[in-house]
């Protein structure tokens, strides 16, 4: 058990030792210069919430870089989650991930604590150091210092969250005799580090509340060997044997044929599969210690509602961890 989050209902609903829960990645479509498409997605977000998916996730990509050919989330992730918080009741609201070096810890602490309170403690914070070089000079930040900035922003933000009138004297934040209001509902918001984030494995195992990694190849069950070894190495380093969850994600094109074999597209970035192949993959992930999988469907060719219906009725029942 993770005693830090013993009473955190959302953390304990999404993350359970030995179990895998299922979430959905936003956006649900690829941006194609028509913002009106995204304004129509609220009905699907409510469908995700009412269908029993454990979570939904948004990315932090502040600027469009043509070199990546990916606009990303489109909406600011925290503004979007604040909006979604008022339209949903139970689904966890996750970031995967906030690029910490591009944010000031005071404003980030204020916004995240506000969303956590307004959503009744449903915020999960995936955090990362960033990998899009062009964003850093745009923010007048040094790309080479992103690992150091990552640690400082995370530490300052968490201090503001869990300490009354803290004295902080970092390279970013200098304050005393001031206090952050509101605080998060449960004192701490779970922070899951994404990838290495320019940190050592020991640092991640000690300071993170969980770990988000990319799955690598997903065509065969043997493809999960490297992922299994990474999870085992991570858990070996966690102090005192505490439970810290592992999460991964996959963009899929769900074929109408349930028997369609797992087939990599776009160099493996997207997995085309029928639901039986997806269930097999998720069950394999569960067996090697993955606690949560976020599925992205924006590269699919089928109707969004139809895809979500099939996932909810045919796949989700295998991975419902239950409400807490």
TrEMBL record:
Keyword hit for Oxidoreductase: yes
A GO term for molecular function: monooxygenase activity
Keywords, comma-separated and alphabetical: Flavoprotein, FMN, Monooxygenase, Oxidoreductase
One of the Pfam families matching this protein, by short name: Bac_luciferase
Residue ranges of domain Luciferase-like in the record: 36-225
Membrane spanning stretches: none
Name of protein: Luciferase
Organism: Myroides marinus
